Amino acid sequence: MPGTLLSWPDWPEFTAAKGEAGDDLVEFKKTIVDKYGEDALVKSWLRVCRELEAVTDEIAERASSMIPEVQFEQFFSLPAEQKKALKEVGCFVVRDVFSKEQANDWFDQLKQYVAANRASITGWPAETPFILNLYYSPTQMAARSHPNQLKLSEELNSWWHDDSGTTSPKPLSYADGVRIRPPGVAFKGLGPHIDAGSLSRWADPVYQSVYSAVFSGNPELLDNYDLTVRKMANQAMFPGSAHSRVFRSFQGWTALTSAGLGEGSLMLYPNVKWAMAYLLLRPFFQPPESEEEIMDATKWKFDATSPWFPGTFRGDSQLLSPSSHPHLRLRECMVGIPKMSPGDTVWWHADMCHAVEVEHNGDHEASVAYIAATPRTEENKRYIKGQLEDFLQGIPPEDFRKGPSEKTFKLFTGESGILGGEAGRKAMGFDLIA
Protein backbone atom coordinates (compact mmCIF):
# COMPACT_ATOMS: atom_id res chain seq x y z
CA MET A 1 0.00 0.00 0.00
CA PRO A 2 1.17 3.56 -0.64
CA GLY A 3 2.68 4.94 2.54
CA THR A 4 4.12 1.70 3.94
CA LEU A 5 7.74 0.57 3.80
CA LEU A 6 8.64 -1.70 0.91
CA SER A 7 11.09 -3.47 3.21
CA TRP A 8 11.41 -3.28 6.98
CA PRO A 9 14.70 -1.66 8.09
CA ASP A 10 17.07 -3.59 10.30
CA TRP A 11 15.96 -1.70 13.37
CA PRO A 12 16.66 -3.60 16.61
CA GLU A 13 14.40 -6.42 17.73
CA PHE A 14 13.85 -6.59 21.48
CA THR A 15 14.12 -9.86 23.37
CA ALA A 16 14.26 -10.83 27.03
CA ALA A 17 17.91 -11.77 26.62
CA LYS A 18 18.72 -8.17 25.68
CA GLY A 19 16.46 -6.58 28.28
CA GLU A 20 17.40 -4.74 31.44
CA ALA A 21 17.69 -6.71 34.65
CA GLY A 22 16.86 -5.78 38.21
CA ASP A 23 14.74 -6.93 41.14
CA ASP A 24 12.93 -3.60 41.04
CA LEU A 25 11.47 -4.51 37.65
CA VAL A 26 9.68 -7.54 39.10
CA GLU A 27 8.49 -5.37 41.99
CA PHE A 28 6.96 -2.84 39.60
CA LYS A 29 4.93 -5.65 38.05
CA LYS A 30 4.00 -7.12 41.42
CA THR A 31 2.71 -3.75 42.61
CA ILE A 32 0.37 -3.52 39.63
CA VAL A 33 -0.84 -7.12 40.01
CA ASP A 34 -1.46 -6.63 43.73
CA LYS A 35 -3.43 -3.46 43.02
CA TYR A 36 -5.55 -4.57 40.08
CA GLY A 37 -5.46 -8.38 40.07
CA GLU A 38 -4.53 -11.00 37.50
CA ASP A 39 -8.11 -11.44 36.29
CA ALA A 40 -8.42 -7.75 35.37
CA LEU A 41 -5.15 -7.80 33.45
CA VAL A 42 -6.13 -10.93 31.53
CA LYS A 43 -9.54 -9.45 30.74
CA SER A 44 -7.91 -6.31 29.36
CA TRP A 45 -5.35 -8.30 27.38
CA LEU A 46 -8.00 -10.30 25.56
CA ARG A 47 -10.15 -7.23 24.87
CA VAL A 48 -7.23 -5.14 23.61
CA CYS A 49 -5.88 -7.84 21.32
CA ARG A 50 -9.37 -8.38 19.92
CA GLU A 51 -9.76 -4.65 19.22
CA LEU A 52 -6.34 -4.54 17.59
CA GLU A 53 -7.42 -7.07 14.99
CA ALA A 54 -9.83 -4.54 13.47
CA VAL A 55 -7.54 -1.57 14.10
CA THR A 56 -4.55 -3.14 12.37
CA ASP A 57 -6.64 -4.43 9.47
CA GLU A 58 -7.84 -0.90 8.76
CA ILE A 59 -4.38 0.68 9.05
CA ALA A 60 -2.81 -1.98 6.83
CA GLU A 61 -5.48 -1.41 4.20
CA ARG A 62 -5.55 2.39 4.26
CA ALA A 63 -1.88 3.16 5.05
CA SER A 64 -1.10 6.89 4.75
CA SER A 65 -4.73 7.77 4.09
CA MET A 66 -5.31 7.02 7.80
CA ILE A 67 -3.57 10.31 8.59
CA PRO A 68 -6.05 13.18 8.15
CA GLU A 69 -5.13 16.43 6.40
CA VAL A 70 -6.79 19.73 7.35
CA GLN A 71 -6.23 23.28 6.16
CA PHE A 72 -5.10 25.70 8.86
CA GLU A 73 -8.01 28.08 8.29
CA GLN A 74 -10.52 25.24 8.68
CA PHE A 75 -8.94 23.71 11.77
CA PHE A 76 -10.66 26.01 14.26
CA SER A 77 -14.21 25.35 13.09
CA LEU A 78 -14.20 21.58 12.69
CA PRO A 79 -17.53 19.78 13.13
CA ALA A 80 -17.69 17.83 16.38
CA GLU A 81 -17.60 14.47 14.60
CA GLN A 82 -14.51 15.41 12.60
CA LYS A 83 -12.68 16.62 15.70
CA LYS A 84 -13.62 13.38 17.47
CA ALA A 85 -12.20 11.38 14.57
CA LEU A 86 -8.94 13.35 14.68
CA LYS A 87 -8.62 12.73 18.41
CA GLU A 88 -9.20 9.01 17.97
CA VAL A 89 -6.52 8.70 15.29
CA GLY A 90 -4.27 11.01 17.30
CA CYS A 91 -2.28 12.42 14.38
CA PHE A 92 -2.87 14.72 11.43
CA VAL A 93 -1.30 17.16 9.01
CA VAL A 94 -2.31 20.82 9.22
CA ARG A 95 -1.65 22.46 5.87
CA ASP A 96 -0.53 26.03 5.17
CA VAL A 97 0.07 27.13 8.74
CA PHE A 98 2.65 29.41 7.16
CA SER A 99 3.03 30.52 3.57
CA LYS A 100 5.57 28.71 1.43
CA GLU A 101 7.39 32.02 1.01
CA GLN A 102 7.68 32.43 4.78
CA ALA A 103 8.92 28.87 5.25
CA ASN A 104 11.44 29.28 2.43
CA ASP A 105 12.73 32.48 4.02
CA TRP A 106 13.05 30.73 7.38
CA PHE A 107 14.99 27.88 5.80
CA ASP A 108 17.36 30.33 4.11
CA GLN A 109 17.89 32.10 7.44
CA LEU A 110 18.56 28.79 9.17
CA LYS A 111 21.16 27.82 6.58
CA GLN A 112 22.88 31.18 7.01
CA TYR A 113 22.87 30.80 10.81
CA VAL A 114 24.37 27.31 10.58
CA ALA A 115 27.00 28.38 8.06
CA ALA A 116 28.02 31.36 10.19
CA ASN A 117 28.48 29.23 13.31
CA ARG A 118 29.34 25.80 11.91
CA ALA A 119 32.46 25.28 14.04
CA SER A 120 30.41 25.58 17.25
CA ILE A 121 27.44 23.42 16.24
CA THR A 122 27.12 19.76 17.18
CA GLY A 123 24.38 17.29 16.41
CA TRP A 124 23.26 13.73 15.90
CA PRO A 125 24.37 11.32 14.52
CA ALA A 126 27.94 12.28 15.38
CA GLU A 127 29.45 11.16 12.07
CA THR A 128 27.01 13.13 9.89
CA PRO A 129 25.11 15.48 12.22
CA PHE A 130 21.85 16.75 10.80
CA ILE A 131 19.68 16.82 13.94
CA LEU A 132 21.30 19.97 15.22
CA ASN A 133 21.78 21.10 18.81
CA LEU A 134 20.33 24.50 18.05
CA TYR A 135 17.43 25.98 19.99
CA TYR A 136 17.39 29.73 19.44
CA SER A 137 18.18 30.37 15.80
CA PRO A 138 16.16 33.23 14.28
CA THR A 139 14.15 30.62 12.38
CA GLN A 140 13.19 28.65 15.49
CA MET A 141 12.41 31.76 17.50
CA ALA A 142 10.12 33.05 14.76
CA ALA A 143 8.39 29.75 13.98
CA ARG A 144 7.66 29.03 17.66
CA SER A 145 6.26 32.49 18.39
CA HIS A 146 4.40 33.19 15.16
CA PRO A 147 0.71 33.98 15.86
CA ASN A 148 -0.44 31.04 13.71
CA GLN A 149 1.72 28.61 15.65
CA LEU A 150 0.47 29.95 18.97
CA LYS A 151 -3.16 29.79 17.84
CA LEU A 152 -2.79 26.21 16.63
CA SER A 153 -0.95 25.12 19.78
CA GLU A 154 -3.64 26.60 22.01
CA GLU A 155 -6.34 24.76 20.07
CA LEU A 156 -4.48 21.45 20.38
CA ASN A 157 -3.88 21.97 24.10
CA SER A 158 -7.60 22.62 24.55
CA TRP A 159 -8.38 19.10 23.32
CA TRP A 160 -7.11 17.85 26.68
CA HIS A 161 -9.15 18.37 29.84
CA ASP A 162 -8.04 18.91 33.42
CA ASP A 163 -10.93 18.44 35.83
CA SER A 164 -9.04 20.35 38.53
CA GLY A 165 -9.15 23.49 36.41
CA THR A 166 -5.50 24.27 37.12
CA THR A 167 -4.17 23.85 33.57
CA SER A 168 -4.49 26.47 30.85
CA PRO A 169 -4.33 25.70 27.12
CA LYS A 170 -2.46 28.98 26.60
CA PRO A 171 0.73 27.80 24.88
CA LEU A 172 4.27 27.74 26.17
CA SER A 173 7.26 27.69 23.81
CA TYR A 174 9.36 24.61 24.52
CA ALA A 175 12.78 25.04 22.92
CA ASP A 176 13.67 21.96 20.89
CA GLY A 177 16.09 21.29 18.04
CA VAL A 178 16.01 21.52 14.27
CA ARG A 179 16.85 19.16 11.43
CA ILE A 180 18.54 19.66 8.07
CA ARG A 181 18.80 16.15 6.65
CA PRO A 182 20.83 15.72 3.45
CA PRO A 183 19.81 13.14 0.84
CA GLY A 184 21.71 9.89 0.50
CA VAL A 185 22.58 9.48 4.19
CA ALA A 186 21.02 6.46 5.92
CA PHE A 187 19.96 6.90 9.55
CA LYS A 188 18.74 4.06 11.77
CA GLY A 189 18.64 5.96 15.06
CA LEU A 190 14.90 6.59 15.33
CA GLY A 191 13.01 3.33 14.94
CA PRO A 192 9.50 2.84 16.38
CA HIS A 193 9.29 4.55 19.77
CA ILE A 194 7.05 6.51 22.12
CA ASP A 195 8.29 9.53 24.05
CA ALA A 196 7.22 11.02 27.41
CA GLY A 197 8.99 8.38 29.47
CA SER A 198 9.30 4.60 29.28
CA LEU A 199 9.54 2.53 32.47
CA SER A 200 7.98 5.42 34.38
CA ARG A 201 4.57 4.54 32.91
CA TRP A 202 4.58 1.46 35.17
CA ALA A 203 6.97 2.54 37.93
CA ASP A 204 5.68 5.99 38.85
CA PRO A 205 2.46 5.49 40.86
CA VAL A 206 0.96 8.69 39.47
CA TYR A 207 1.82 7.93 35.86
CA GLN A 208 0.59 4.36 36.30
CA SER A 209 -2.76 5.61 37.58
CA VAL A 210 -3.28 7.57 34.35
CA TYR A 211 -3.83 4.17 32.73
CA SER A 212 -5.87 2.61 35.54
CA ALA A 213 -8.70 1.74 33.13
CA VAL A 214 -6.32 -0.54 31.24
CA PHE A 215 -4.95 -2.28 34.31
CA SER A 216 -8.39 -2.66 35.92
CA GLY A 217 -9.94 -4.61 33.05
CA ASN A 218 -11.76 -1.74 31.33
CA PRO A 219 -9.45 -0.54 28.54
CA GLU A 220 -12.37 0.88 26.57
CA LEU A 221 -12.68 3.54 29.30
CA LEU A 222 -9.15 4.86 28.81
CA ASP A 223 -9.30 8.61 28.17
CA ASN A 224 -6.16 9.57 26.28
CA TYR A 225 -6.92 13.27 26.71
CA ASP A 226 -7.31 13.46 30.49
CA LEU A 227 -4.69 15.72 32.03
CA THR A 228 -6.20 15.76 35.53
CA VAL A 229 -3.66 13.27 36.90
CA ARG A 230 -1.22 13.10 34.03
CA LYS A 231 0.00 16.65 34.58
CA MET A 232 1.63 15.37 37.80
CA ALA A 233 3.20 12.24 36.28
CA ASN A 234 6.98 11.96 36.49
CA GLN A 235 7.88 11.04 32.92
CA ALA A 236 11.56 11.79 33.66
CA MET A 237 11.61 9.50 36.71
CA PHE A 238 14.69 7.74 35.36
CA PRO A 239 17.56 9.94 34.15
CA GLY A 240 18.11 9.91 30.41
CA SER A 241 18.59 12.35 27.57
CA ALA A 242 15.51 10.91 25.82
CA HIS A 243 13.14 11.98 28.59
CA SER A 244 11.69 15.46 28.39
CA ARG A 245 10.66 17.06 31.65
CA VAL A 246 7.89 18.90 29.82
CA PHE A 247 4.46 17.50 29.00
CA ARG A 248 3.73 18.05 25.31
CA SER A 249 0.09 17.49 24.41
CA PHE A 250 1.11 16.94 20.80
CA GLN A 251 4.57 16.63 19.35
CA GLY A 252 5.05 18.37 16.05
CA TRP A 253 7.15 19.01 12.99
CA THR A 254 7.03 22.33 11.18
CA ALA A 255 8.20 21.77 7.60
CA LEU A 256 10.79 24.22 6.27
CA THR A 257 11.18 22.24 3.03
CA SER A 258 9.16 19.62 1.20
CA ALA A 259 9.54 15.94 2.10
CA GLY A 260 7.59 12.82 1.23
CA LEU A 261 7.77 9.07 1.61
CA GLY A 262 11.29 7.83 0.95
CA GLU A 263 12.79 11.22 1.77
CA GLY A 264 13.67 10.71 5.42
CA SER A 265 10.17 11.55 6.54
CA LEU A 266 8.09 10.71 9.60
CA MET A 267 6.26 7.44 10.16
CA LEU A 268 3.33 7.11 12.55
CA TYR A 269 1.21 4.37 14.07
CA PRO A 270 -2.20 6.03 13.60
CA ASN A 271 -3.93 4.79 16.73
CA VAL A 272 -3.45 5.98 20.30
CA LYS A 273 -5.87 4.17 22.58
CA TRP A 274 -5.45 0.51 21.71
CA ALA A 275 -1.77 0.69 20.86
CA MET A 276 -0.96 2.26 24.24
CA ALA A 277 -3.19 -0.21 26.10
CA TYR A 278 -1.37 -3.10 24.40
CA LEU A 279 2.05 -1.66 25.22
CA LEU A 280 1.11 -1.38 28.91
CA LEU A 281 -0.19 -4.96 29.15
CA ARG A 282 2.48 -6.69 27.06
CA PRO A 283 5.05 -7.12 29.93
CA PHE A 284 2.60 -9.32 31.86
CA PHE A 285 2.21 -12.00 29.18
CA GLN A 286 4.50 -14.63 27.70
CA PRO A 287 4.03 -15.84 24.11
CA PRO A 288 3.24 -19.43 23.13
CA GLU A 289 6.10 -21.60 21.93
CA SER A 290 4.53 -22.15 18.53
CA GLU A 291 5.05 -19.32 16.05
CA GLU A 292 1.74 -20.25 14.45
CA GLU A 293 -0.09 -19.31 17.67
CA ILE A 294 1.64 -15.96 18.30
CA MET A 295 -1.31 -13.87 17.09
CA ASP A 296 -3.81 -15.85 19.20
CA ALA A 297 -4.03 -13.83 22.41
CA THR A 298 -5.73 -16.72 24.23
CA LYS A 299 -2.55 -18.78 23.87
CA TRP A 300 -0.41 -16.28 25.77
CA LYS A 301 0.28 -17.00 29.46
CA PHE A 302 0.03 -14.50 32.27
CA ASP A 303 3.44 -14.14 33.95
CA ALA A 304 4.42 -11.33 36.29
CA THR A 305 7.62 -13.00 37.53
CA SER A 306 9.87 -11.99 34.63
CA PRO A 307 11.82 -8.72 34.94
CA TRP A 308 11.45 -8.08 31.20
CA PHE A 309 9.56 -5.04 30.00
CA PRO A 310 9.76 -5.43 26.19
CA GLY A 311 11.59 -2.55 24.54
CA THR A 312 11.83 -0.69 27.83
CA PHE A 313 15.12 0.81 29.00
CA ARG A 314 15.27 3.27 31.88
CA GLY A 315 17.18 6.00 30.08
CA ASP A 316 15.58 5.69 26.66
CA SER A 317 12.23 6.35 25.03
CA GLN A 318 9.81 3.43 24.95
CA LEU A 319 10.97 1.24 22.05
CA LEU A 320 8.93 -1.23 20.02
CA SER A 321 9.65 -3.95 17.46
CA PRO A 322 7.64 -6.48 15.44
CA SER A 323 8.84 -9.45 17.50
CA SER A 324 8.39 -7.87 20.93
CA HIS A 325 4.96 -6.36 20.15
CA PRO A 326 3.52 -8.67 17.48
CA HIS A 327 -0.17 -7.76 17.77
CA LEU A 328 0.60 -4.20 16.68
CA ARG A 329 1.70 -5.52 13.25
CA LEU A 330 4.29 -2.75 13.02
CA ARG A 331 5.62 -3.85 9.63
CA GLU A 332 2.23 -3.14 8.08
CA CYS A 333 0.99 -0.38 10.35
CA MET A 334 3.87 2.09 10.64
CA VAL A 335 2.82 4.41 7.82
CA GLY A 336 4.46 7.41 6.24
CA ILE A 337 2.87 10.81 6.64
CA PRO A 338 1.47 12.54 3.53
CA LYS A 339 3.97 14.61 1.57
CA MET A 340 4.75 17.83 3.40
CA SER A 341 5.25 21.20 1.74
CA PRO A 342 7.08 24.18 3.27
CA GLY A 343 4.80 25.78 5.86
CA ASP A 344 2.84 22.61 6.68
CA THR A 345 2.87 21.01 10.12
CA VAL A 346 2.27 17.47 11.36
CA TRP A 347 1.14 16.61 14.89
CA TRP A 348 0.96 13.42 16.92
CA HIS A 349 -0.36 12.61 20.39
CA ALA A 350 2.06 12.34 23.33
CA ASP A 351 1.44 8.57 23.51
CA MET A 352 1.82 7.83 19.79
CA CYS A 353 4.36 5.41 18.36
CA HIS A 354 6.47 7.07 15.67
CA ALA A 355 9.69 6.61 13.74
CA VAL A 356 11.85 8.31 11.12
CA GLU A 357 12.63 6.69 7.79
CA VAL A 358 16.09 5.18 7.48
CA GLU A 359 16.57 6.29 3.88
CA HIS A 360 16.42 9.75 2.33
CA ASN A 361 16.34 9.12 -1.41
CA GLY A 362 15.18 12.59 -2.39
CA ASP A 363 17.16 15.22 -4.26
CA HIS A 364 17.24 18.00 -1.64
CA GLU A 365 17.70 18.59 2.06
CA ALA A 366 14.68 17.79 4.23
CA SER A 367 14.36 20.31 7.03
CA VAL A 368 11.93 20.59 9.93
CA ALA A 369 11.76 22.50 13.19
CA TYR A 370 10.66 20.42 16.18
CA ILE A 371 7.82 22.45 17.67
CA ALA A 372 5.31 20.91 20.08
CA ALA A 373 2.04 22.04 21.65
CA THR A 374 2.78 22.68 25.31
CA PRO A 375 0.04 23.63 27.82
CA ARG A 376 0.43 25.59 31.04
CA THR A 377 0.70 22.91 33.70
CA GLU A 378 2.54 23.76 36.91
CA GLU A 379 5.53 21.60 35.96
CA ASN A 380 5.61 23.05 32.45
CA LYS A 381 5.57 26.58 33.84
CA ARG A 382 8.44 25.69 36.17
CA TYR A 383 10.46 24.34 33.28
CA ILE A 384 9.71 27.24 30.91
CA LYS A 385 10.56 29.79 33.61
CA GLY A 386 13.94 28.12 34.02
CA GLN A 387 14.34 27.82 30.26
CA LEU A 388 13.82 31.57 29.87
CA GLU A 389 16.24 32.41 32.67
CA ASP A 390 18.82 30.17 31.01
CA PHE A 391 18.11 31.74 27.61
CA LEU A 392 18.74 35.23 28.96
CA GLN A 393 22.07 34.04 30.38
CA GLY A 394 23.08 32.19 27.22
CA ILE A 395 22.67 28.70 28.71
CA PRO A 396 21.13 25.81 26.69
CA PRO A 397 17.71 24.50 27.83
CA GLU A 398 17.54 22.08 30.77
CA ASP A 399 16.63 19.13 28.53
CA PHE A 400 19.56 19.88 26.20
CA ARG A 401 22.51 20.95 28.32
CA LYS A 402 25.01 19.62 25.77
CA GLY A 403 24.04 22.32 23.31
CA PRO A 404 26.14 25.44 22.67
CA SER A 405 25.70 28.89 24.14
CA GLU A 406 24.06 30.61 21.19
CA LYS A 407 24.14 34.03 22.80
CA THR A 408 27.58 34.60 21.26
CA PHE A 409 26.62 33.23 17.83
CA LYS A 410 26.70 35.37 14.74
CA LEU A 411 23.17 36.34 13.56
CA PHE A 412 21.71 35.55 17.01
CA THR A 413 18.68 37.81 17.52
CA GLY A 414 17.84 37.21 21.18
CA GLU A 415 14.55 38.63 22.44
CA SER A 416 14.07 40.67 19.29
CA GLY A 417 13.46 37.43 17.40
CA ILE A 418 10.19 36.77 19.24
CA LEU A 419 7.09 37.28 17.10
CA GLY A 420 3.45 37.43 18.20
CA GLY A 421 3.79 40.50 20.41
CA GLU A 422 2.80 40.02 24.04
CA ALA A 423 1.44 36.52 23.32
CA GLY A 424 4.82 35.47 21.96
CA ARG A 425 6.61 36.82 25.03
CA LYS A 426 4.17 35.05 27.36
CA ALA A 427 4.75 31.80 25.51
CA MET A 428 8.47 32.27 26.17
CA GLY A 429 7.63 32.69 29.86
CA PHE A 430 8.26 36.38 30.44
CA ASP A 431 5.10 36.63 32.55
CA LEU A 432 6.54 33.92 34.81
CA ILE A 433 9.60 35.95 35.79
CA ALA A 434 7.84 39.31 36.16
From TrEMBL:
Recorded superkingdom: Eukaryota
Listed name of the protein: DUF1479 domain protein
